[in-house]
């Protein structure tokens, strides 16, 4: 089994556990690369994205030194919390995907909690 397959299996395992406890709550899905971080609030029942944010957005790109550090992840966490609350979402289920809850993923989650999302 290659590394891509193990990453996909890990993500599927996490999402399977999330769907057991999610109920009707939307999912806060995180994707990170070596240079950027992306986050979406997804309603799996309808198959729609409710809110999204990334470090590639023009208004953030100028204020961030890089999109690949914990400060950028925290800024994205606050932004997604603001956009989700504007869309009427207060409770979500955190989907870390194949990534461990550490570093940028943890910074994003904590900033989203500070911004008003509960999970």
Automatic annotation (TrEMBL):
InterPro entries: Ribosomal_L18, Ribosomal_uL18_bac-type, Ribosomal_uL18_bac/plant/anim. Keywords: Ribonucleoprotein, Ribosomal protein, RNA-binding, rRNA-binding. This is one of the proteins that bind and probably mediate the attachment of the 5S RNA into the large ribosomal subunit, where it forms part of the central protuberance. This is Large ribosomal subunit protein uL18. Part of the 50S ribosomal subunit; part of the 5S rRNA/L5/L18/L25 subcomplex. Contacts the 5S and 23S rRNAs. Belongs to the universal ribosomal protein uL18 family. One of its GO terms (molecular function) is structural constituent of ribosome. The gene is rplR. It comes from Mesorhizobium sanjuanii. CDD domains: Ribosomal_L18_L5e. PANTHER family: 39S RIBOSOMAL PROTEIN L18, MITOCHONDRIAL, LARGE RIBOSOMAL SUBUNIT PROTEIN UL18M. It comes from the Bacteria. It holds the Pfam family Ribosomal_L18p. GO terms for biological process: translation. One of its GO terms (cellular component) is cytosolic large ribosomal subunit. The keyword Chaperone does not apply.
